[in-house]
Amino acid sequence: MLPMPSRRLVSATLCALALLTLWPSGAVAQAPRRITLAATSGLAIRQADSIVDRLARAGALRMRRVQADTLLPDRTHQRMVQHYAGLPVHGGEIARQLDRGLTVSVFGQLFDDIDIYPLPTLSQDAARQVMEAAVGGPLNPATAPILTVLPLEEGGYALVYDATLYAGGESMRYFVDAHDGSIVDQYSVILTQGMAGTGLGVNGDLKKIAVTPLGGQFVADDSLRPVPLATYDMAGETDRVGQVLNGGVMLSPSDLAADPDNVWVDPASVDGHVHSGWTYDYFFRALGFQAVDGNNLRIISLVHPANRDDFPSATSRDIFLFYLNAFYCPGCGPDGKGILVYGEGLPEDRDFLGSRVDYFTGALDVVAHEITHAVTFFTSRLGTRDVPGALNEAFSDVMGTAAEFFFQPPGSGVLQADYLVGEDIITPPLAGLNRSLEDPARFGDRDHLSKLFTGFADNGGVHTNSTIASHAFYLAVEGGTNRTSGITVNGVGRPRLQEVAEAFFRGFAFLLPSNATFALARAATLQSAQDLDPTGELRNALANAWRAVGVQ
């Protein structure tokens, strides 16, 4: 029999937690089975702190990560995952902020009344076979199915094996019942959208590109920044891209994007490599965060995952994955640490619903958007569907926009910073490919919580719902009136845009749990804003912006 924490202790602790007034005044408490923490002051912090520590001592909370705050000295952030009988509980997580050892805030969600037998009757190898049969390809050798407790939407809990597999143009997360081998749940985790040479980018702009001499030519392997940052040219070999993502094929130096004289002529490679470097610079220079994990983990990008000449015969799957998309694939690659893939766009004589689509690396906000997905994966690990997925997408749009304003002059033209996502590669902008933080309804996206999309499409509306949060970012900066609520917000002004971005970065990367709600996102960004600006001006602007989009 496995050693198990006292269920009576854990359940009693969580029941006590449910009775605490942890939400700000006016918020609605959640059902007892899913207990939400949002402690930001006084007695609520002391009570939450005591309970979190008690659960940690009982083994019901275990530390996943301790991260130093990159914007405020003396601040650290702990992430603790809920466990039952030594097994992780999917979606149970606490994020606690400390100031020299004293708790500043606690956000998270925990599950109560778990009562399942923790020993599987199905082997790990058998679960692996179920997953591989479902996805039509092998599990990445760098990963293995993990025994997990899964809360069920219809009530109760299941003992499952959890793993993510890439095959057939899709990266899927599977939860396989640890007794009968059935697939309990599944969903996509694809997250869409020392020497210098020179080259022209997708939009004809001259750029410097950080390269390394190799074998008589120059390759897109950054030798100037402290992070391993490389861009690989897949030469349109779509099948090989899939093998690389699933860890079956190792990338080699011969795969690196290359040029013989260091005057680069492939715009997709130039922009892919340069924009990745600029995004690294933005996170480091503006936010103090190094690469995607805060510790200079390598950044690998793949360009030309398909060939434009092959477009007429391409399958619809490949068109919407490798031509009309960019994505971050978490857990992909031979080392299982994730890879970025940038779509090929369309041949010059083709359009998509009347719009011209160029190489996806040509938009700085798209590259920064995808790299932010990697940052999220290594920090808060927001989910990829439903509301957590929408918040994940919103955070990427916010950081992509902030990176644009950091490097480009404001304006409405090409290579100018604005609140449109992907406008430099899609002309004219198009619903489904572009999003507007300023006016979400322009492309049919949501600008208010009352309009939340609750269907199954788009992994539960992760893109169309994302603009509820990203529009709040816009309103906090620029001000304006929300179309749906009619509420007018006085923003802090564009000169303080990066301050609002800092509040979102700290809130989304450090304070949010993986299964966050819009209400938790609001609470976390307000706490972050107060931490950064004790005058309360930044917090007030954010509070009014969230109220305008219907999040209280």
Q: Name the shape in a single word.
A: globular
- In CATH, the topology of the largest domain is named Elastase, domain 1
Number of helical regions: 12
Largest sheet: 5 strands, antiparallel
Uncertain runs with pLDDT below 50, 5 residues or more? 1-9, 15-32
Question: How would you classify the helix and strand content by structural class?
Answer: alpha+beta
What is the CATH domain class of the largest domain? Alpha Beta
CATH architecture of the largest domain: Roll
Number of domains: 4
Return Rg in Å.
Answer: 23 Å
User: Which strand-content bin applies to the residues?
Assistant: 15-25%
Number of strands: 25
Mean pLDDT: 91
Strand arrangement within the widest β-sheet reads 1-5-4-3-2
Helix percent band:
25-40%
Give the N-terminus to C-terminus distance in angstroms: 46 Å
Condensed summary:
With 552 residues, this protein is an alpha+beta fold. Helices cover 32% and strands 24% of the residues.
Task: Please provide a written account of the structure.
This protein is α+β, with helices and mostly antiparallel strands and about 550 residues long. Mean pLDDT is about 90; it is low at about 1-10 and about 15-30. It has helices spanning about 5-20, 40-55, 125-135, 240-245, 265-285, 315-325, 365-380, 385-405, 455-480, 495-510, 520-530, 535-550; strands at about 35-40, 60-70, 75-85, 85-100, 100-110, 145-150, 155-165, 170-175, 185-190, 190, 195-200, 205-215, 215-220, 230-235, 260, 265, 300-305, 325-330, 340, 355, 420, 425, 435, 480, 490. The protein contains twelve helices and 25 strands. It has a five-stranded antiparallel beta sheet, sandwiched between helices. A five-stranded mixed beta sheet has the order 10-18-19-17-14, with helices on both faces. Strands 15-13-12-11-16 form a five-stranded mixed beta sheet.
